[in-house]
Amino acid sequence: MNNLSRRSLIGSATGAASAALLPGASAHAVPPQSLPFSLRATVFDGGQQVSGIVITAWSLPAIDPESITPSTFTVQAKASAPPGLPEGASVSGYASTREVTEAVLGPRQQIDIQLRSGPGVWGADTLGFAEAIFRNVELDLDYDITLRSPIRLRDGREIGTLEFNQGSLLDHEVDAFTRGTASNGVKYRLYEPRAKRRDEEDQRRPLVVWLHGAGEGGHAGLYTNHTHLAANRGALGFATAEAQAVFDGAFVLAPQAPADWGTGQVTQSLKKVIDEVIAATNADPQRVHIAGNSSGGFMTVEMAQAYPDFFASCVPVCAPTTGFTRDQLLRLGSTPTWFVAAANDASVPAEQNSVAAHKLLPSSRLSLYPNVVWDGHEYNGHWAWIYVAHNDPVSDGVRLWNWMAAQRR
Fold this sequence. Notes:
Layout: E1 10-14, E2 33-44, E3 47-56, E4 73-80, E5 94-98, E6 100-105, E7 110-115, E8 127-130, E9 135-138, E10 140-147, E11 151-152, E12 158-159, E13 161-170, H1 172-175, E14 178-181, E15 187-191, E16 205-211, H2 227-230, H3 241-247, E17 251-256, H4 265-280, E18 283-293, H5 295-306, E19 313-317, H6 326-330, E20 338-342, H7 351-360, E21 365-369, E22 372-374, E23 377-379, H8 385-389, E24 394-395, E25 398-399, H9 400-406
C-alpha cells in the first residue's frame, strides 16, 4: 500500500431506478449508502498506471451479479501536482474519463472494475515528470465514480444512489517490496523470496541490487521511497515469478538515492546499505549481483570498479561510461559484466559508452539493440532497461537472468 491517494474523496453517484423489479420483489428502494473503494495500479514498461478499481460492497444486501456490467459505471480521473514541490518546479496534471473495459461482482461482494490501461493510454498515470528538477513525482489522484444504471439486488430492489469514498492506491508488485532505511539514512525497498519448504527457510539466497535512473532519485521533500519502483519495471522484473524461478529465489534490493548517484561518499553509503541488508537477511554474500539503468548504470559501474572483488555480476544498462577513466573501467575485468544498450539512444550514445567499454573489456558481454520495441510499442531509445526487465538479452545462447544466476564469487 502506498500514499498516492492521500485524501478520502466522495464521488456522488446517481441513476434513475428504471430497471424492472423481479417478480414478487419489494418495490422499496435501498437507502443511500457510502462504499469505500481502492485504486488498483500496475507498473507497465512505461510506468505505473491506475488499471482498475475495487469497490467494497459487502455492506449492501446481496447483489444480482448480472446487474454489474461495464455500462453500470462512469469513472472520472483527475491528477494534479502534489504539495511540496520545490519553487519553480511544476507537473502537468490531467482530467480524463477512464474507459471501463470490464466490471464483475467478485467474492464477498467486491465489485472489480477494470480500466483501459497500458502503453499509449492517456490519463491513467500515477506519476508526473517535473522538468525543472528532473524528477518523477507522485501525482495526487482524485477518482469519481458515477452510477449510469441502477444496481439490482437479488431480492428485486434497486440501488440508484450511492456515494463512493476513495481509499489507497494498491499495486501488488510494488507493495511486495517492504520499505527500509539504512543506518546512514538511505531509503530502500526490499523484496524477500519465499521458501518453498520449511527446510529451505535458512537457505542462502542470491541478492540482486537494482539502481534507478536520475529521474527516480529523491529531491528536497520528495524522498518518498516509491517512485523508483513505479517509474519502470527495472526492479520489479527480478521479483516476477519467472525471474524468481531462474534465481531459485532471490532478494531484490532497490535503494533510492537521497538526491543523485555519484562517487566518493555516495559509493560508500550505497555499499553500507548492501552490507546491512546482507547482515539482516540470509542473502548470500557470494552471490550479490548489481544492475542499473542510465544514472543507475553509471553507479553500477562505479560500484563494480570500487569493489572489484565483491559482486558476482555487473549489468550496466544504457550506462554513461565516458565518466570513467580507462583504468577504472579495466577494474571491471574481475567482475563478470554484461552491457545492454540501444543504438538509437540519444541520451547516452551507445558507441561512445557501452560499445567502447565492451571493447576495452574482452571478457564482457554486450547486447546492442537497434531500438527499444516491446509488444509492438516503440519506446525512447534510452529505455533499454525494458529488455532487461523481460530477460530478453541473449549471448552465446544464454539469457541474461540465467547468466547472472550462474555467477558467484
